[in-house]
Automatic annotation (TrEMBL), chain B:
<keyword id="KW-0813">Transport</keyword>
<dbReference type="Pfam" id="PF00528">
    <property type="entry name" value="BPD_transp_1"/>
</dbReference>
<feature type="domain" description="ABC transmembrane type-1">
    <location>
        <begin position="101"/>
        <end position="293"/>
    </location>
</feature>
<feature type="transmembrane region" description="Helical">
    <location>
        <begin position="36"/>
        <end position="58"/>
    </location>
</feature>
<dbReference type="InterPro" id="IPR035906">
    <property type="entry name" value="MetI-like_sf"/>
</dbReference>
<keyword id="KW-0812">Transmembrane</keyword>
<keyword id="KW-1133">Transmembrane helix</keyword>
<feature type="transmembrane region" description="Helical">
    <location>
        <begin position="210"/>
        <end position="234"/>
    </location>
</feature>
<feature type="compositionally biased region" description="Polar residues">
    <location>
        <begin position="15"/>
        <end position="25"/>
    </location>
</feature>
<keyword id="KW-1003">Cell membrane</keyword>
<feature type="transmembrane region" description="Helical">
    <location>
        <begin position="105"/>
        <end position="127"/>
    </location>
</feature>
<protein>
    <submittedName>
        <fullName>Carbohydrate ABC transporter permease</fullName>
    </submittedName>
</protein>
<feature type="region of interest" description="Disordered">
    <location>
        <begin position="1"/>
        <end position="29"/>
    </location>
</feature>
<feature type="transmembrane region" description="Helical">
    <location>
        <begin position="169"/>
        <end position="190"/>
    </location>
</feature>
<comment type="similarity">
    <text>Belongs to the binding-protein-dependent transport system permease family.</text>
</comment>
<feature type="transmembrane region" description="Helical">
    <location>
        <begin position="272"/>
        <end position="294"/>
    </location>
</feature>
<keyword id="KW-0472">Membrane</keyword>
Length: 273, 309
């Protein structure tokens, strides 16, 4: 009885230790004064970076989740050839580390190197993936490319767990494919969609590797393009660890607020899982 | 009767052989017209092109010399010299790439194994033992899932520099040993897959808790173990912020950090373009093979909450 308990406490304590580390980051600026938070929130660049990732999340999260759900439903409909192949193909990018995905897409965005840009100019389009207006969405594309397949797999797994009797009953009752999707599948995969949405929100808010890797390629990416990038630069370029820690804490708070907020929003209707 | 039906039976047969023991198979698909089928397949194929295109480009680019990388179309082969390129990658700078690869394997392998065992033990305890503050611990761990990993990296760096562990293997390894998500999954799975009656029976037979966990519970929780291991492995393998913050010694770098370093100086050293591409190719291919071949384990674990009613 004792040993697994010790394990549990050990695990919980290490879990705590992480939040302890997070508390340490939070508490040391408190002794320096709350000034760091005021400085962080007073710096227009940092606030702008928060706004930027929120805008990013508002657009990218729904796009990603809708794409993942659509792919999952199409695969599950199983009226296509090569379902196994497609499923693997979509999931494949998940194995590509974010930075390597960014290096890859970075090449695909670079004029002169990219077949996409060349193809665009052959069609008379001037594709500028790295400019100020488009860079955020170019990054969104990298993130979507990387994680849509993973989210799809979570949803597919939930679809597979739906009791087959339901489909039989539905077809006896004369339900068409669209009704099966909207009346049976979508309500029953809600927990999976909620789960993937929360993880996507958390993921997008901590955007870091993609802009860091693309920074040398695009002048539109500043050193405080995202909150994480800003914190990193405060810590290692300006040696202002306290401000960086304050920014990290703020980011964690925003992420928690949004994921809990979203959970609260969806659990009002019915409890997930 | 129809091709559709045959396809289903064929698919079921395959599933059965790959997934032992197989669950009860039921006919669950609704028949569709061939036109619909072509439409769905076409939509899926378009998506597949999107997901596979960069991988295709990487594979082609990895075979090119630095000059033809810029001088030729990115979509077609041009004097392929894959082997020369790969040899360049692994021999550059005294074989540093191999060192990075080993580091990545070390961080991911050790981190994932330890994290899996700890998560299972903790999850099992949280599911099967009642103790004071159980729900509080569980909620703390859930909050741990919600806190973005990169927001913790800087505070962790400050902590590590206080105990003098910055720029060592430990600085990356220690934070990787914890997996709040693993504990969460472990608890859900233990609730569903470990029957109380079995635990009681073993206790009556005189087995100690330690023995019960290692001989019985671990075996029952194996599917969850595989999933947690895979998630943690990929998570550490793909992690970038933590090693970036912690490590300054190149020989401790994992692959991701090393490749970004090559890429970031490639505007001054053009030969590094090819090295970064070749290195990306080398590091991506084994992981991709592993992901595809282990796919059924991902699937097995992802809906642990809803299996086994």
């Amino acid at each position: 009885m004792v040993l697994p308990l010790v394990y549990a406490i050990y695990e919980s304590v290490t879990g705590i230790q992480r939040s302890g580390a997070f508390g340490q980051g939070g508490s040391s600026p408190v002794f320096v004064g709350l000034d760091n938070y005021i400085t962080a929130l007073g710096a227009s660049a940092f606030v702008a970076s928060l706004g930027r990732v929120l805008l990013f999340a508002v657009v990218q999260v729904p796009v990603m989740i809708i794409l993942a759900t659509a792919l999952a439903l199409l695969l599950d409909a199983a009226s296509a050839w090569g379902v196994r192949f497609f499923r693997s193909a979509y999931f494949l990018p998940y194995g590509v580390p974010g930075v390597i995905a960014s290096i890859l897409w970075g090449f695909l965005y670079t004029p002169g190197l990219s077949p996409l840009v060349n193809f665009g100019s052959a069609l008379g389009l001037n594709l500028d993936f790295l400019g100020g207006g488009s860079i955020l969405w170019s990054i969104a594309n990298i993130v979507t490319w990387q994680y849509a397949g993973y989210n799809m797999l979570v949803i597919v797994a939930q679809l597979k767990s739906i009791d087959a009797d339901l489909f039989e009953a539905a077809s006896i009752d004369g339900a068409n494919a669209w009704q099966v999707i909207t009346r049976i599948k979508l309500p029953l995969i809600r927990p999976a969609i909620v789960l993937t949405t929360v993880f996507t929100i958390i993921g997008t808010i901590q955007l870091f590797a993609e802009p860091l890797v693309l920074k040398p390629l695009s002048s539109a990416i500043t050193s405080s393009f995202t909150p994480n990038l800003s914190a990193y630069n405060e810590a290692f370029a300006n040696n202002n660890y306290n401000l960086a820690a304050a920014e990290s804490v703020l980011l964690a708070l925003v992420a928690c607020a949004f994921s809990f907020g979203f959970l609260k929003l969806v659990t009002r209707g019915g409890s997930p899982s | 009767m129809t091709t559709t039906e045959r396809a289903y039976t064929g698919k079921k047969g395959k599933n059965q052989s790959s997934k032992q023991p197989s669950t009860v198979q039921k006919p669950r698909k609704i028949q569709r017209s061939p036109g619909w089928r072509i439409l769905v397949t076409a939509a899926l194929a378009v998506a597949a092109v999107y997901f596979l295109f960069p991988v295709y480009w990487l594979t082609i680019a990895a075979t090119k010399s630095t000059s033809s990388l810029f001088g030729s179309s990115g979509l077609a082969l041009d004097n392929p010299q894959l082997l020369t390129n790969l040899v360049n990658v692994v021999t550059y700078n005294g074989g540093i790439f191999g060192r990075w690869a080993l580091n990545s394997v070390l961080y991911s392998g050790v981190g994932a194994v330890v994290a899996t065992i700890c998560s299972l033990a903790a999850g099992y305890c949280l599911a099967k033992f009642t103790f004071r503050g159980r729900e509080v611990w569980f909620n703390i761990i859930l909050a741990g899932v919600m806190i973005p990993g990169t927001a913790l990296a800087l505070p962790l760096f400050l902590l590590m520099s206080q105990v003098g562990l910055v720029n060592t293997y430990w600085s990356v390894l220690l934070p990787s040993l914890v997996s709040p998500f693993g504990v969460y999954l472990g608890r859900i799975y233990a609730q569903a897959a470990v029957p109380d009656s079995l635990l009681e029976a073993s206790r009556l037979d005189g087995a100690g808790e330690f023995r019960i966990f290692f001989t019985l519970v671990l075996r029952l929780m194996m599917p969850a173990a595989v999933t947690i291991f895979l998630f943690q492995f990929i998570g550490i393998w793909n992690n970038f912020f933590l090693p970036l913050v912690m490590l300054s010694d190149q020989s401790l770098y994992p692959i991701t950090l090393g490749l970004v370093q090559w890429q970031s100086v490639s505007d001054r050293h053009p030969e590094l373009y090819q090295l970064a591409i070749g290195g990306a190719f080398l590091s991506v291919i084994p992981i991709m093979i592993a992901i595809v071949s282990l796919q059924r384990f991902w699937k097995a674990g992802l809906t642990e909450g809803s299996v086994k009613g």
